[in-house]
Amino acid sequence: MAVPEIPALSVPGPPVAVRDTASGDLVTTDPEGTARLYVCGITPYDATHLGHAATYVGFDLLNRAWRNAGHDVTYVQNVTDVDDPLLERAAKVDVDWVELAERETELFRQDMTALRVIPPQHYIGAVEAIPIIIELIQRLDSLGVLYRVDDDLYYSVTADPAFGEVSGWDRDEMLRIFPERGGDPDREGKKDPLDCVVWLGKRPGEPSWDSPFGPGRPGWHIECTAIAMTYLGAAFDVQGGGSDLVFPHHEMGAGHAQVAVPGAKFAQAYAHAGMVAYDGEKMSKSRGNLVFVSALRHSDVDPMAIRLALLRHHYRANWEWTDDQLWTAVDTLARWRQALSLGAGAPARPVVEEILAALADDLDAPRATAAVDRWVAATLGTDGLADTSDPDAAVTMLAALDAALGLAV
């Protein structure tokens, strides 16, 4: 993915706090040196929809807020380029699974570039990561926390005394949701219905790789754990993803890591983006109620209008997309550009400070964009006389919109 040029701001950003799912508290991140962020990536069997985009734009705000607060950032993201949904889709449409994964991954990269999402320094596919995944599985096996069911290897969730602390869910809720999100609680031979697979033995017609456990492929949860531990180390700053990953994905991943490295906390904070609905239900491939970023881009919609429409919602909120929101964002950008074209405007520094403060407060993009609206109204004289007392206002605001909100206006 192309790395956008990000202007440096003369106004420093404050320390950044995010809502930690595990504790329920607003946690001020305090990176020692480089800030470390892991966000779970896509399974590339279909194009990027607005639910995906909302998540990655949301965590892009964290990346930018850290940078504006003076931190270097190491950002890691995976792509699950071998998994059941991808293989099933490839078989259904009679396309080679590798070709499908590569095509959809490239489309995702193009969508993120258009939305000015800062790309991860390490963008790691599951296939590429198989050697480090095998190493982690061997480590867990040496600790006696894995067992075999037929040709598959399972992890015992009871091995981690902290199991359940990421989600805060009780066992009944876990058992209800587990089968809906890839789990197999009813499989015979498992020690605990919530135990998860870390290595799937070879299946007919499916890709497999050699390993000390026999030919097969990795489970989903162990993939992200191995990548995060390899590229970020233990106890990195923030684990991010959609709220549908809280359980089992992030719960299991934390367990793998915390058993492998006793005494270490996998992530200092777990931040989760809300779900985006369309036509009354959460966007999902199974329901087919998707709005694709690429379709909007190819219909001549300004990608910055797409991004602004997403920023009007707090990253943790559940909300429903409507076309009206997009056209409102198009009109808003036109007003902002009109005000910025004047050069002079209302005093900009206080607005920049408010934008940075809003984003440092759990990435409150709606509050930040509202501050820009007020500056535009003052500059254009929407509510009275136009204020053009700051001769450098446009330059200051343009830099802040880009550096803090990722909007190249």
Outline the structure in words.
The protein is α/β, with parallel strands linked by helices and 409 residues long. It contains 13 helices and 14 strands. It has a domain at 302-405: Anticodon-binding domain of a subclass of class I aminoacyl-tRNA synthetases (Four Helix Bundle (Hemerythrin (Met), subunit A)). The strands form 4 sheets. Strands 5-4-3-10-11 form a 5-stranded parallel sheet, with helices on both faces. A 4-stranded antiparallel sheet has the order 6-7-8-9. The model has no long low-confidence stretch (mean pLDDT 96).
Layout of secondary structure:
Layout: E1 17-19, E2 26-28, E3 35-39, H1 50-68, E4 73-79, H2 84-93, H3 97-114, E5 122-125, H4 130-142, E6 146-149, E7 152-155, H5 171-177, E8 196-201, E9 216-218, H6 220-232, E10 236-242, H7 246-260, E11 267-273, E12 276-278, E13 281-282, H8 293-298, H9 303-311, E14 319-320, H10 323-340, H11 349-360, H12 365-380, H13 393-405
Parallel strand pairs: 3-4, 3-10, 4-5, 10-11, 12-14
Antiparallel strand pairs: 1-2, 6-7, 7-8, 8-9, 12-13
Distance, first to last CA: 20 Å
Q: Whole-number average pLDDT?
A: 96
The oligomeric status of these chains comes to: single chain
CATH fold type of the domain at 302-405: Four Helix Bundle (Hemerythrin (Met), subunit A)
Give the H and E element order: EEEHEHHEHEEHEEHEHEEEHHEHHHH
Helical residue percent band:
40-55%
Keywords:
4-stranded antiparallel β-sheet; 13 helices; Four Helix Bundle (Hemerythrin (Met), subunit A); 5-stranded parallel β-sheet; single chain; alpha/beta
